[in-house]
Amino acid sequence: DTGVSQNPRHKITKRGQNVTFRCDPISEHNRLYWYRQTLGQGPEFLTYFQNEAQLEKSRLLSDRFSAERPKGSFSTLEIQRTEQGDSAMYLCASSLKGENTEAFFGQGTRLTVV
Amino acid sequence: GDSVTQMEGPVTLSEEAFLTINCTYTATGYPSLFWYVQYPGEGLQLLLKATKADDKGSNKGFEATYRKETTSFHLEKGSVQVSDSAVYFCALSAAGNNRKLIWGLGTSLAVNP
Q1: What is the 3-state secondary structure (H, E, C) of chain B?
Q2: Residues of chain A with C-beta less than 8 angstroms from the C-beta of B102
Q3: Which residues of chain B neighbour A104 with C-beta distances below 8 Å?
Q4: pLDDT, tens digit, for every residue of A44-90?
């Protein structure tokens, strides 16, 4: 297994367009997380899946954001009607279920909204 | 709510200098504590962790001890190398079923030869 994979690595889009990012977690991991990181800040939690169920969504996740994890494998994060404030690094992480399991991170998708 | 406060950077050291990056936390219950590192152009990697009070996490010469009485998890290394130049993040894993991570702002470290 090559770890957590995210695509694309970079995305430049015009304001108002929709974008979709993909995350492929480590295959046996049932937990999957999305975080957002802006320059000079630590990551901020967006949402969490256990298998295919989305169990928690941050208040940061406005109704323009939607995430799915069909079949409990890969996940997608879609942003509709992008705004300049959406420009950030979007990080995906996965882990096994358990008390003290390590979260493994992908390299992220850097979104620039112009 | 839960939060993490870590020392602001950037930190610039000479090779072989001693490193301390301070991290304190606020949490309900008993979180697990982590240090992650982000090397230039790479993703976040777990550096070390501690899951209960007085535990010491260690890896690659770095150490941090979970201090419940001072709610701290300071990162230390006795002799830094140029290859340690990176951004270091302190994080806690919230109590509960989802184990999401709450992060500090990150501390940039530059080590000069």
Answers
A1: CCEEEECCCCEEEECCCCEEECEEEECCCCCEEEEEEECCCCCEEEEEEECCCCCEEEECCEEEECECCCCECCEEECCCCHHHCEEEEEEEECCCCCCCEEECCCEEEEEEC
A2: 45
A3: 46
A4: 999 999 999 999 999 888 899 999 999 889 999 999 999 999 999 99
